[in-house]
């Protein structure tokens, strides 16, 4: 039986623990061998979501909560502190047992992505890793030729155009969380998304990226603001701070 987490755990310790445990639950569901690929995504989402939401409502009962897999609740708008979770970011990649899927547990305070954790259960040859806002790693230096992560199935035309303008190599990858964490891990240098997302797709990744000293904003350079009535957040830029200016300038030129 596991050790009971004490009530003295910090918000980020809680986020990291929940993300890691949810990731293990998802792997267990997938490895059960009793679900078809279509059913697996639904079962995984439901299992991880139930765990995360029950845990947060017990451990942080006074906070708001927004999850991709739950019906939205207007009550969250009354809270300064709101947990924003994505139980399975990259359902297709999860079902295919790829490495590029994630679990997001983030906390927005007054709309700011303040802290969080992103679990990559399939990373490190299946051993899994958790990147968190209270334990920043050293981000490896960028190579001579920049690398931009894009969707492995539907690369956004704006991202492709910016990559061409900067002479960057395209790196196809799955989930939003995996792409954002790839910048921290030195597997990529720029994550530009313009194809439509929601708050749960980027809150935890943005919080972790900011804690690592990276740039995180909307595609026009404006701040990321969470816990909005409309949870649609169509674009995102995460990169090293020195690359933000050139990316935004190239994107403005292309969009103009």
UniProtKB/TrEMBL annotation:
UniProt-annotated binding residues for Mg(2+): 68, 86, 89, 201
Oxidoreductase found in the keyword field = no
Q: What cofactor is needed? A: Mg(2+)
**Coiled-coil segments:** none
Which keywords appear in this protein's UniProt record, sorted alphabetically? Magnesium, Metal-binding
Q: Name one GO molecular function term.
A: 3'(2'),5'-bisphosphate nucleotidase activity
InterPro entries named among the record's database cross-references: CysQ/Inositol_MonoPase, Inositol_monophosphatase-like
SUPFAM superfamilies named in the record: Carbohydrate phosphatase (SSF56655)
Question: By its UniProt entry, which Pfam families does this protein fall under?
Answer: Inositol_P
Q: Which GO terms describe its biological process?
A: 3'-phosphoadenosine 5'-phosphosulfate metabolic process; sulfate assimilation
Entry annotated with the keyword Chloroplast: no
Protein name as catalogued: Inositol monophosphatase
Provide the species name: Novosphingobium nitrogenifigens DSM 19370
What lineage is this protein's organism placed in?
A: Bacteria, Pseudomonadati, Pseudomonadota, Alphaproteobacteria, Sphingomonadales
């Amino acid at each position: 039986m596991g050790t009971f987490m004490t009530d003295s755990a910090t918000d980020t310790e809680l986020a990291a623990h929940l993300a890691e445990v949810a990731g293990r639950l998802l792997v267990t569901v997938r490895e059960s061998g009793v679900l078809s690929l279509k059913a697996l995504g639904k079962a995984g989402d439901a299992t991880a979501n139930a765990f995360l939401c029950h845990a947060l409502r017990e451990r942080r009962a006074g906070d708001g909560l927004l999850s991709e897999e739950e019906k939205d609740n207007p009550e969250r708008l009354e809270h300064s502190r709101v947990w924003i979770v994505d139980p399975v970011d990259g359902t297709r990649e999860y079902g295919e047992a790829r490495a590029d899927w994630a679990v997001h547990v983030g906390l927005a305070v007054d709309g700011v992505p303040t802290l969080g954790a992103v679990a990559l259960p399939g990373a490190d040859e299946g051993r899994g890793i958790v990147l968190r806002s209270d334990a920043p790693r050293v981000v490896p230096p960028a190579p001579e030729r920049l690398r931009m992560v894009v969707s492995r199935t539907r690369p956004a035309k704006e991202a492709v155009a910016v990559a061409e303008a900067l002479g960057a190599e395209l790196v196809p990858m799955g989930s939003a969380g995996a792409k954002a964490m790839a910048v921290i891990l030195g597997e990529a240098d720029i994550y530009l998304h313009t194809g439509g997302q929601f708050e749960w797709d980027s809150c935890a990744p943005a919080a972790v990226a900011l804690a690592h000293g990276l740039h995180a904003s909307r595609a026009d350079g404006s701040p990321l603001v969470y816990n909005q009535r409309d949870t649609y957040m169509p674009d995102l830029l995460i990169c090293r701070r020195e690359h933000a200016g050139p990316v935004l300038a190239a994107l403005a030129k292309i969009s103009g």
